[in-house]
Amino acid sequence: MPGGGQPNLQQLLKQAQKMQEQLASAQEELAETEVKGSAGGGLVTATVTGSAELRSIEIDPKVVDPDDIETLQDLVVAAVRSATEEARKVQQEKMGPIAGGLGGMAGGLPGLGM
């Protein structure tokens, strides 16, 4: 490397800035992306953003039984878990290539604790 083996600091800073811009763009996109998860054969559906913000819960009236609230609660939890897992997949698809491009720099940039 030129300069006695020292990396070009200016070039590293440009790369880090570009990756931070890509990261911010991907985070914006994730916040706007919605994914769904369901349980009970679709009786309960949860919608979350790609950044794992819960947006809505849909419950089919057929599953509402005042004498069995526990089953409904279990279905809601399962639907939210399913939607959250879908959100994680979307996050990995969007953020994985960016974080992978950082190589050894990922530990030194704020907000990339993936």
From TrEMBL:
Location in the cell: Cytoplasm, Nucleoid
Major subcellular site: cytoplasm
Coiled coil: 9-36
Keywords, sorted A to Z: Coiled coil, Cytoplasm, DNA-binding
Cross-referenced InterPro entries: YbaB-like_sf, YbaB/EbfC
Gene Ontology molecular function terms on file: DNA binding
HAMAP family: DNA_YbaB_EbfC
UniProt family annotation: Belongs to the YbaB/EbfC family.
Full protein name: Nucleoid-associated protein Aru02nite_48290
Annotated organism of origin: Actinocatenispora rupis
